[in-house]
Design brief:
By secondary structure, the chain is mostly beta strands. It is built from one helix and seven strands; from the N terminus they run H-E-E-E-E-E-E-E. The longest helix is centred in the first third of the chain and has 5 residues.
């Protein structure tokens, strides 16, 4: 119950530990980046990646997800360690109210 009081997200997060392949623009098999997801919801996903993403940067997710979204926008980035970033993503079709 305490979690519900402090969590102001629109959708409940679900644990989702998977390898995520993504690219930074039009789909290009030569510029595939890798990440590891932590959780997912109807509106977004959190993952770790060694590639620094910028807030507002769009990515295309190449890994099949349990939701119909394949494009996302970076909402926040936290440098987790020397070469690892924790990234919050909002799915593109989930951005509209």
């Amino acid at each position: 119950m305490l979690h519900d009081i402090y969590d102001k997200r629109r959708h409940k997060r679900h644990l989702f530990f998977h390898k995520i392949e993504y690219c930074l623009g039009p789909r290009s098999y030569y510029d595939i980046c890798n990440g590891s997801s932590i959780n997912i919801s109807e509106s977004g996903m959190c993952m770790y990646t060694i590639r620094r993403l910028d807030e507002g940067e769009d990515i295309e997710i190449m890994t099949a997800l349990p939701l119909p979204y394949q494009k996302a926008t970076t909402r926040w980035v936290v440098k987790y360690s020397h070469d690892l970033y924790k990234v919050g993503l909002a799915f593109k079709s989930a951005l509209s109210p």
